[in-house]
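Quick one: structure tokens for this chain, please?
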Amino acid sequence: MADYFIDTELATGNDDGSTFDDAYQDMETALEYDSYSDGDNIWIRRRSGVESPTDEILINSNSTAGITNWIHCIGWPREENSGVATFINGSTEISSVTEITPNWEQHVSRRIKNNSDDKWYLITNTSGTIFIIDREFAGSDDASVNFTIEEDERYTQAQAIDDSTWTIKKTDWNADDDSPPLFDFGSTDHYMRIAAAYMWRFLSLHFKGGNNSTYNQFGIGSPSNIAFKNCLFEQSNSRACIFISSTQLRLFLDQCIFRGSSPVSGTQTAIYATRNGLIVMNDCAVYGMRAGLTIDGYVSNLNNVNVGVEIENTGYDIVLGCQDLYWKDVKLGAGSIEIIDGIYYRGSINIENYNKELGINKSFNCNGNLINVLVVEGSGDPEKRSGGADEILAIRQNQSASSSSTLFIGSMLEVFEHRYWADTSSRNYRYYVQADSMTITDSSEFFIEVEYTDQHENSIEYYQTKVRSDETITVRSGAADWSQYIEVTGIQPATTSWVIIRCYMGFYDADGVLYLDPMAVLS
């Protein structure tokens, strides 16, 4: 493991990156060096940067697929900050900040805590003397309380560098303001790109602009592991901040913020991913884009991510291709998701704690969406069914008339799957529903399908039968009307085994909602 240094405002020394005194003075030269190896650290002084470059920066190294330790490209780590502010329960604003001045470049993407509460929150935006955080403050109201902004990762490691024989010291690098090193590609045709580098991790850097039609701002075109942490991305052009054309890429983003220019048209987006691979985002925010995230073909894991919350995205929050995705604590601004693969698509985004509301789970698919709703007997719309579940499903199949399909079951929305360990008794399985402002006249558009073992001699001589319900649904008479249901009868396994019940939907309705009580009634 070796340390290398970049200081683009340095005008003396050997320009070879070996010390503070001899730091690289040009970003392109430094980052295109082809002999970085496992575990190397490339430290960039915070005053450094590149604006309106005349060429692309092609990250180049000898980092083949056999590398085992990350190569780190690091904006010189910032120390812990502190100050005094007001925290209000249920608010995303930390207000009346004193002792430091909230600044987008210096503070956004870092974590902050109320010292008396000791819980960390992500700073996603600033406004005057206000920090905007990623979720509502859950602690008690606290005026004029001390707070702490977390130091950057690798701060301790940076301060341990031995500068005893160097003329330029760590105190000089520490004295720069807290704005991270800036890569500003402006409206030029130039960009940063990874084409053959493996296991690169970028920390505390600021990327801005970029107008290349192929690689956008930061292009990734190799099957590799690439990671960003505490990075800022800004875009004012009709391009992506990160454009991915690689297959088998693993992209990891932690505490990263993407800010657009709120365009009324165009293709500005935070991440544009094509082909296939994995994107993992933790503690991030995307806002002010035309389309927040455009993910076509990639599997993505999102946890604690805001999309279009701090500033509304002007088109869609999410543009999605054909995947089944499971996210957690994802909050959408306008709640707008576009599914781009049309008919015969059954993928969905399933969000646990949707909009960061504990216990509320929502699924989006090409036909519409479904969400769990708390119900109370005798009040609300709908009311709780007598003896029914405390939470029901509200299903709106209004995404696209062209996407609804009953041609084959794989193109339909699977609403749920229930499993019952059953003996050889004959049973009926019933689920109650009510329809608000809609009807389902074709039972093939909404049904339960029961799969069970109909014949059984031994583990290799058996027969699995599938039986569907055949009821149609009419408009309810009111919020308490649970008279309608879908049902299969006479289900009698040949041996004690699983009875599997799946519910499917394939209809389209522009404005109606179907309520389903997921508590089965067995008789």
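The mean pLDDT is 91.
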